[in-house]
Specification:
CATH architecture: 3-Layer(aba) Sandwich
Strand content: 15-25%
Radius of gyration: 21 Å
CATH superfamily: NAD(P)-binding Rossmann-like Domain
Number of domains: 1
Structural class: alpha/beta
CATH class: Alpha Beta
Low-confidence stretches: none
Distance between the termini: 26 Å
Shape: globular
Mean pLDDT: 89
Amino acid sequence: MELNSIDRDFLATKRKKLLTDEDFNLNFSKLENHFNNKKVLIIGGSGSIGSSFVSEISEFSLKSIHIIDPNENGLTNLVRNLRSKDNKASSLNLITSPLDFGSKITEQFIIDNGPYDFIYNFAAIKHVRSEKDLYSTMQMFDTNVVKHSNLLEKILKEKSSKGYFSVSTDKAANPVSLMGASKKIMELVLQCKHLESESDLITSTTRFANVAFSNGSLLQSFPIRFEKQEPLPSPIDIDRYFVSHKEAAQICMLSTASLSDGDILVPKISESFKLYPIIEVAKNFIHSKNLIPVVVDTKEEAYKIISKKNNEYPIYATIPDTSGEKEFEEFVGSGEELKESEFENFDIVKHSEFDIGKLKEFLLEFNLMLSGDKKLNKKDLVERIKQIVKSFNHIDTGLSLDNRM
């Protein structure tokens, strides 16, 4: 029997009470004011965080929701879920379109259907494995940085929105991966308003943990591999923070309703929110199937256990030696400051000081590279990033997660 999403997420979070409960209840009137009778656009709305966010905000009396995402199957399922609810979400004023973030068609969609009270952007290249070669790395920086900058420029020019939000990651604090560095630079882009023009556009972001069993994650592979009778791979000595889908959505809501100027909402470390070994999540999953987890060092051993068809199930332990891999995550980077916070379970990281001239150069160079007018190798890219993100300490082992099971 399949676990429901709440029970499944609990295997990683181990929290019976939502991390967001206290702050969500304390700020409910502010959230109501922020969302009620508002027209919003959600970019990347059919992904794990985006769809959870849509589900949560649909509980408020929104004027309309417009959602774009190139995944038309994801959009279809999202609409079906919303229309099937037995509350106000089923009669939402809703427009969806399978568009690519950053395309000219998307720009025209925003001009024709705006202006919006707020634009929420969940589109991202989110996996560390995407820095495996120059091409995927270029795509990652184009999606996570350049398209945000270009879109913000259009928003200000056309007066398309009063506010803009995008999700960052804990990997942006003292980044060791190009993915984390790309998200750190995205955070800086949100401060530029845009770039240094006079504007009262409200911008905010949040760094939170791994969303348990989100699309494409290692955890999401567990039920798929179990169904196919494959071992569950898990790195040893790697700890992560986890949030549930509902917590992820509510953290984004708290950030957009309360922050501005590119400030960053981050969870406070506590007894109920602390690092948890990934291999323990794998064990929890196997226990949920009423089986006994057995940790082994090779795939051969793992398949021998599976072939016995008894009450044991194997976890294939792997060594974490791929590029950009951190032993543990953190939320506040070196040189970053915390602001006074009204929240019980969250801190606010003050937007960073940085060289906006270097950022402008980077954006210009990258746009030239994407248009084919300039060449930039991976080594050059790393050096350019270090000029903007002083805490960037790239770990490049030459190995990619594509070499893993």
